[in-house]
Target: TetR/AcrR family transcriptional regulator
Amino acid sequence: MAPDRRKMIVAAATKSFSLFGYKATTMDQVAKLANVGKGTIYTFFKNKEELFEEIISSLVKEMIVEADSAIQLELSFTENVHRALYRLLEFRSQHQLMIKLVQEEAEMGTLAVSEMLQHVENEIIDYLKQKIETAIAKGAIPEANTEITSFLLLKMYIALVSDWERNHAPLSSEQIAEIMKVFLLKGLQK
Amino acid sequence: MAPDRRKMIVAAATKSFSLFGYKATTMDQVAKLANVGKGTIYTFFKNKEELFEEIISSLVKEMIVEADSAIQLELSFTENVHRALYRLLEFRSQHQLMIKLVQEEAEMGTLAVSEMLQHVENEIIDYLKQKIETAIAKGAIPEANTEITSFLLLKMYIALVSDWERNHAPLSSEQIAEIMKVFLLKGLQK
DNA sequence: CTATTGACTAAATTAGTTTTTTGGTCAAAT
DNA sequence: ATTTGACCAAAAAACTAATTTAGTCAATAG
Model:
């Protein structure tokens, strides 16, 4: 049974990116961790960035599985939006690789990392967009610009979960759900 | 009529900060621009940062005057929130000093500048908070956590006006007003 | 006397140079 | 047909020297 070199490489790179970040991970290190010659990496991946892309791509798939598993058909659309988003942001704050990448972007501003995080954000927005389109088709919510709506939903969520904590004590899931309800359901108008 | 040295210094520093940013402005330069010996600056201000603070403090006052002038009593609360916020973000994108500081934060990450922009943001949130409290007292909108609500309102606005433009064509004032209405007034629920 | 100044200094920043590291290649080995 | 690691150019880091700058304070001016 020959070891699957490709998988070893991806596993090693994932581990190293999670531990040290993108920039501080060297291809020599990945090769050593994967018990593989450095050249072998380049038979599977064009370069470091493509290896990174593959890993992020898997990560996004994982996230979507997570979000989907949070959705329950018997609940309302609004409730499910909250549940899916909350699961996604929990994922972001609990997965070692995501934590490291967010940190690397903040501290060093590594370009490849910024691009990749932007990409992840866009994927999440696309995911939300699809859910919103389905809800509109089913007549569950009124028509709207789905691109802007999904964009704004995510931004609101990030504001509540991450930005808020810069100056205040973190909000509980229940508090966030309550706030979302005010904005999504009733609006501020009496 | 002795020239008011303090005013000359503040004027010179404002000009230089607007033109070159915080870091690239030297105290020698400010002194020369203000036709004043460098030591004189330090009889009025403890250090460079305190001089900066005074200028930002004036800026915030200007912004509040701007926002207030956008408010019209005969319009609805929601409409006025939109008008005031729009005026504030217009201010940010049109005032030379603000433009320069936002740019300096993005490009160089100057700490003193980041702190000052955070301070400006907090002042805006405080301003919104007062308006919301008044509206609640008048019974115009339902009760809510005013701290979170004002925070979220600003974040939504910045998302629509600034973040959106990273990947899309800018939204017009009318479009933004429409989106705000959906979220503040009606919610997404049918 | 008080208010103002600019030469002065310690500390920080920048510029220039050398050394080390790193992504990627490819001839040799398996 | 795969895999490898010595090798290379280019990028990054480390180091140093030279310059700049915030802030001080003894001398000066009014």
